[in-house]
């Protein structure tokens, strides 16, 4: 038996911030990073909240939120006792907000509503039961999964992403595609998650290059914002896989942006997974659904078309090679493979990979990547 549930209420499009009018005479705690705290975007958010609310702000958010950040947030939440928590920013801010609320509730600290407002189009964290917390001392990212991590509300306003730089737009867009592909070939995929993943992939292939080169196009930004949420809904139900299990290690060990790490691994993981017949057929089906090849193409031809299109997409979006991405860290790659392999095997996302991956397979993939 498979289950499917939608637990986050979505509000999308220009003007969707107006739903915040429902919060009056509340203590609202906004969690964002230091950059957003001093940007016009935060003032836009504050301006959308009725004036009779008390507003507090937590800004100790860094890329790849750490255990220390979450602990600090829990302490502040315990002190403030807000009614509403708003996670505002990219995946790091949303993940931190969700983790802080989740752990705080376990300590008996309740809130009325958790709101997620993404300012990048990538992680889909606004609609997922997942978040990723980093242990900086061990260089490991820990993905957490629990139905209580779902935000109560998500606001998808494309005006918040028009100023996102091209490289971040590219990286986060590739994260969306990875979510869609991994959900699609997951053993837990269903007709419901397939529909979400297919649509997300179609949007990425069509609109991501435009979003990278013409970031001020609200219509295109809206499409990518929706794609991120669609893919997030898909993988939250179906799970992820080997791509994310290894990408978390590239982020933990070398501090590569998450979307970039996924992009660098994507085709290598697809080739590996395609060694399993069901995964091959599903990759082929997705390629045909995205019109990357004729409907009568063989499975192998469709797979090749998918891989080639991903390479073309990476080139159009100026995704760097792994050598350029790693810079001087290239010399440390081989010595860190054993640590990355061990952590990848323990990563929760590996459980829903369509093909079993042991230490030898992951080691070989990492060795061939460089």
From TrEMBL:
<feature type="domain" description="Fe-containing alcohol dehydrogenase-like C-terminal">
    <location>
        <begin position="169"/>
        <end position="368"/>
    </location>
</feature>
<protein>
    <submittedName>
        <fullName>Propanediol utilization propanol dehydrogenase pduQ</fullName>
        <ecNumber>1.1.1.1</ecNumber>
    </submittedName>
</protein>
<dbReference type="InterPro" id="IPR001670">
    <property type="entry name" value="ADH_Fe/GldA"/>
</dbReference>
<dbReference type="Pfam" id="PF00465">
    <property type="entry name" value="Fe-ADH"/>
</dbReference>
<dbReference type="InterPro" id="IPR018211">
    <property type="entry name" value="ADH_Fe_CS"/>
</dbReference>
<dbReference type="GO" id="GO:0046872">
    <property type="term" value="F:metal ion binding"/>
</dbReference>
<comment type="similarity">
    <text>Belongs to the iron-containing alcohol dehydrogenase family.</text>
</comment>
<dbReference type="Pfam" id="PF25137">
    <property type="entry name" value="ADH_Fe_C"/>
</dbReference>
<dbReference type="InterPro" id="IPR056798">
    <property type="entry name" value="ADH_Fe_C"/>
</dbReference>
<dbReference type="GO" id="GO:0004022">
    <property type="term" value="F:alcohol dehydrogenase (NAD+) activity"/>
</dbReference>
<feature type="domain" description="Alcohol dehydrogenase iron-type/glycerol dehydrogenase GldA">
    <location>
        <begin position="8"/>
        <end position="158"/>
    </location>
</feature>
<dbReference type="InterPro" id="IPR039697">
    <property type="entry name" value="Alcohol_dehydrogenase_Fe"/>
</dbReference>
<keyword id="KW-0560">Oxidoreductase</keyword>
